[in-house]
Write a structure and sequence with these properties.
Elements: H1 6-12, E1 15-16, H2 18-25, H3 29-38, E2 45-47, E3 50-54, H4 55-65
Antiparallel strand pairs: 1-3, 2-3
């Protein structure tokens, strides 16, 4: 089965730096650092000393953070 939207898949699997992820979410870099230290927040990938965030994992994390209307 062929993927009909290859560009969207490539973008979803893109690895972001902490600064890129922070800018995309409108959060501070310090928020990311504090949550990594606490073991909370977004899942991340360590490559050597570098930290990267999967765009797909961020999108999934955002969906999990969605709060209902309290019906």
């Amino acid at each position: 089965m062929q993927n009909t939207r290859p560009h969207q898949t490539e973008q979803a699997d893109q690895l972001l730096t902490q600064a890129q992820a922070a800018q995309w979410l409108g959060m501070s870099s310090a928020w990311f650092e504090q949550n990594r230290f606490r073991g909370t927040g977004l899942p991340y990938i360590k490559i050597g000393r570098s930290v990267r965030y999967s765009r797909l994992a961020i999108q999934e994390w955002l969906l999990a953070q969605t709060v209902g209307a309290g019906i």
